[in-house]
Specification:
Blueprint (H helix, E strand, L loop, with lengths): L3 E5 L1 E2 L2 E2 L1 H12 L7 E7 L3 H15 L5 E6 L8 H15 L5 E5 L2 H14 L2 E6 L1 E4 L5 E7 L4 E7 L5 E5 L17 E3 L29 E5 L10 H10 L2 E4 L1 H5 L20 E5 L5 H7 L4 E6 L12 E4 L2 H14 L1
Parallel strand pairs: 1-4, 1-6, 4-5, 5-12, 6-11, 7-11, 13-14, 13-15, 15-16, 16-17
Antiparallel strand pairs: 2-3, 8-9, 9-10
Bound molecules: flavin-adenine dinucleotide (FAD).
The site of flavin-adenine dinucleotide (FAD) has 28 residues, from α6, α7, β16 and α8.
């Protein structure tokens, strides 16, 4: 029986990268006698079931001791009560060993983790940036506080269950392990009657790359001045294989959808490269992006606070600098 359970997530038939990162985080905290199971929920029509089994195959190569699949048509679309019931069914099957539950800090993970923790009587850690096992057996989790200005460390003892969500892009994803893949088994599930039935999911139009998991983000602020002004930013993002983000100033001005907002009241991102165009760098914006690995700021005001967190600063007009970057990339 597994002591660590990673709850993997598929969206639109694709395994989310953060699930591999959660596996790495869990593996980094294992000690003698621990074992790791990856739990995958999904199902639906033939195509959905095929993508669940493809995802299970990918997960089995990343070094868990087993992959457990709960495949049921009702799990094809996220509904909190039903997905929670599936997790509780797994918890019952894996009790009493299952102690550490790892989820991605995604919209679904954020919704499920506290529900699961409450039902298991477990402790909960949200949005973990790091996790390490101490010599005394406790696992110490690091989280950001006060809009990223401070870090706290919380230690959890192994005895009682703990539910953790890990921030995307903070752990290197678990690599493929040589040797035979882990066994894949399935767990039967009788869904309870649910008060919520999800009949359809209508998505807002968004770029090809998911903002929360993007390795490169080109973000625009009020300095972009219009919705049309975002076109060169989108072009640069597409060239770099990245995603477009925005400040709240740009969203409030109606230049782009709030789904792109980064910051305290928007998404938290940790890309390898964050290019801020026409963003002043208000503390609420920094809260969502200041842990990016490399920050490039393009702003025509040399005193703009964004330069205080930037690794590279370009003082200039974004409408000249961004096309120049695109041209340089195309010529390079
Ligand atoms: P501005 O502050 O107006 O900055 C525009 C910048 O563009 C300026 O620095 C200017 O020099 C530059 N510029 C103008 N023209 C050009 C040009 N042609 N070329 C280059 N540079 C140019 N904000 C967020 O972003 N995310 C949040 O989640 C968030 N949550 C908030 C929560 C609360 C409770 C509150 C009170 C505020 C929140 N805000 C948030 C708002 C935040 O305080 C700022 O108002 C907002 O971030 C400003 O957006 P901005 O930088 O795009 O606009």
């Amino acid at each position: 029986m597994a002591t660590h359970i990673v709850v993997a997530e598929c969206r639109d038939g694709q395994l989310r990268r953060v699930s591999l990162e959660a596996i790495a985080a869990a593996k980094g905290c294992m000690q003698d006698g621990d074992s790791l199971a990856v739990l995958l929920l999904g199902g639906g029509d033939g195509e959905a079931t095929a993508s669940v089994s493809a995802a299970a195959g990918l997960l089995a190569q990343r070094g868990p001791d087993e992959v457990i699949v709960i495949d049921h048509p009702i799990l094809g679309r996220y509904a909190p009560e039903v997905h929670l019931a599936a997790l509780l069914a797994a918890a019952k099957a894996l009790a009493p060993e299952a102690r550490w539950w790892w989820l991605g800090h995604t919209a679904i993970g954020r919704d499920l983790a506290p529900r699961l923790a409450a039902r298991l009587g477990a402790g909960q850690v949200s949005d973990a940036l790091a996790a390490a096992r101490g010599a005394d057996g406790r696992i110490v989790f690091t989280r950001a506080l006060h809009a990223g200005k401070a870090l706290e460390r919380r230690a959890f003892v192994p005895g009682a269950p703990t539910v953790v969500t890990v921030r995307p892009n903070n752990f290197a994803p678990a690599a493929i392990v040589a040797g035979p893949a882990a066994p894949i088994c399935s767990l039967p599930f009788n869904p309870p009657p649910s008060r919520i039935i999800v009949r359809d999911v209508v998505r807002r139009a968004s770029g090809a790359v998911d903002l929360a998991e993007a390795r490169i983000i080109v973000a625009g602020g009020r300095g972009v001045k219009s919705a049309a002004g975002f076109a060169p930013l989108a072009q640069l993002a597409a060239l770099l294989g990245g995603a477009v983000g925005a400040s709240r100033g740009a969203c409030d001005a109606g230049y782009c959808d709030y789904a792109l907002q980064i910051g305290q009241t928007g998404k938290t991102v940790t890309p390898d490269l964050y290019i801020a165009c026409g963003i002043s760098g208000a503390v609420q914006h920094l809260a969502g992006m200041s842990r990016s690995r490399v920050i490039v700021a393009i702003n025509k005001d040399p005193d703009s606070p964004i330069f205080s967190v930037a690794d590279y600063g370009i003082v200039g007009d974004l409408f000249e600098v961004v096309p120049a970057l695109i041209e340089e990339w195309n010529n390079g």
